[in-house]
Amino acid sequence: MHNPPVAPRTSLFKKYFLALFAAVVVPLAIAGGSEAWFGYHDRRETLNDLLEAEARSAASKIQDFMDGIRDQLGWTVQLPWSDSADDRRRLDALRLLRQVPAVMSLSLVDAAGKERLFVSRIGLNRVEDGDDHSNDPAVRGARSDRVWYGPVKFLDGSEPFMTIAVAGNRSAVGVAVAEINLKFIWDVISAIRVGQTGEAFVLDQLGRLVAHPDISLVLRADEAATRPLQALWAAIITRPGEAVTGPDLSGKMVLAAMAPIPGVDWSVVVKQPVAEAFGPIYAALWRTAALLVAGAVLAALLAYWLTRRIVGPIRLLELGVARIGAGHFDHRISLATGDELERLASRFNEMAGELAVSQERSERISRLRRFLAPQVAELVDRTGDDSVLDGRRVEVVVVFCDLRGFTPFSAQSEPETVMAVLGEYYHALESVVSAHGATLLSFSGDGAMVLVNAPVACPDPALRAVNMARDMQMSVQRLLVGWRAQGHRLGFGVGLAMGLATVGRIGSEGRLDYAAIGNVTNLASRLCSSAEDSEILIDRVAAGAVGTNAPLVELDARVLKGFDQPVPVFAVVIGVGQ
């Protein structure tokens, strides 16, 4: 029998979602769209009037700034000139520079066009110079229109300047010509705010940036960087009396309007980010969106409940794994969901237990390797018995060695050279000590202390120590050949002694070391100090234990520090029997 195809099923959630969307969301969307459309046009007209008013206000403030400079210059051309130098007029000029920081220099020209006084912040002052300025455009312009504003100039391609000339009420008083640093307009332009984040900037008749809240844009005089501002200015010119939209320096869309500044033939442009300007419209859209979201709240609550049932255990697993990964191997994840998540938590707990055991073993080996040969540390770890490290009295062979001439070498050499030599030296000693299964107790500067027959006993400790000392001498002597070729006067001596000593762990909870204490330690140290370069000195006990198994030469008894009687000394012959 042929079964008809099963029609695709739609979930109940999807059915009700579509029905609620059509019944609630669509009418709300239509109403919200209509409100946004009409609200946009209303807001656009309001913003156009507002920005126009802000632009005129900004132009008025900049005009007041320029008029203030003009009026101050007018005070310097009130009285006619006399034939001699006028100290009072010079004091007035200096006072002007102090009161008006924007004025960089001031030149006073008499009725005949002769310069009578020149004061400057950056140049030398001149009195009665007599240069003829009658044909200077600034002088002629001021005599014609009483006030003359020159074009904007950028000094060294950076700071904007312009010339202002003001003529007196009578021709006899002459003309005042001042160079104005336009960067001081920054105080005015930076104080202008349109809305919360809107700002203003000023362009001259050629479209060059004269003032901006970011003064570095003006000082750089980089037309490429300010091209977006010039594009806004050009767009406003083509649509006079209307605010235009365009990108600003940061690429954000802004709404801009412009007003002219009389006299100087500049334009001030005010701009406000579109996002801020149309904030009320956006707020209305957000309200509409909130109404749309409200229709899905019931479904969101159900999804939230189901998600909590799944995400909660997963988050607990995540936090537990993070703690285990951070080294808290005693942490256990507790889940009672009765499903796969609970089984996964059990697996993580088993893994944490195994990691704890592994970490404990690793730390134990690390502690043992601080004062044991690697093979001894591995042995203690495998057997799990560290009682060999407990304090006890045992016969040991103590070996001391150090470099000859190291103190003057370290005082005269660079730190990098000293550390490089020590690195090679330590590596050579560690290799030999490890090869002979001895215990390297410590490095101290250029010296080292090695213990044989403790903490783990070995057969023929004296012979093993002598063989180790010969290998140490040969290894270091090979290094000395290279060091001496570099001009380093160094040598190497070894001393060893055999006898009873107290050995064991010593220290505190935070720091443990393995140490040997007893007269044999002092004797080995003194023999090392007495040994010359390439020499190995041993005491009578060690020599007797070695017997004929190693070539020895008996030396004269030596007086050693800390010993009342001369001490019999033997030297190991290096290179014989190898």
From TrEMBL:
Residues 397-528 form the Guanylate cyclase domain. It is found in: Cell membrane. It comes from the Bacteria. GO terms for molecular function: adenylate cyclase activity. It is a multi-pass membrane protein. InterPro entries: A/G_cyclase, Adenylyl/Guanylyl_Cyclase_3/4, dCache_1, HAMP_dom, Nucleotide_cyclase. Pfam families: dCache_1, Guanylate_cyc, HAMP. GO terms for cellular component: plasma membrane. PANTHER family: ADENYLATE CYCLASE, TERMINAL-DIFFERENTIATION SPECIFIC-RELATED, TWO-COMPONENT RESPONSE REGULATOR. This is HAMP domain-containing protein. It comes from Bosea caraganae.
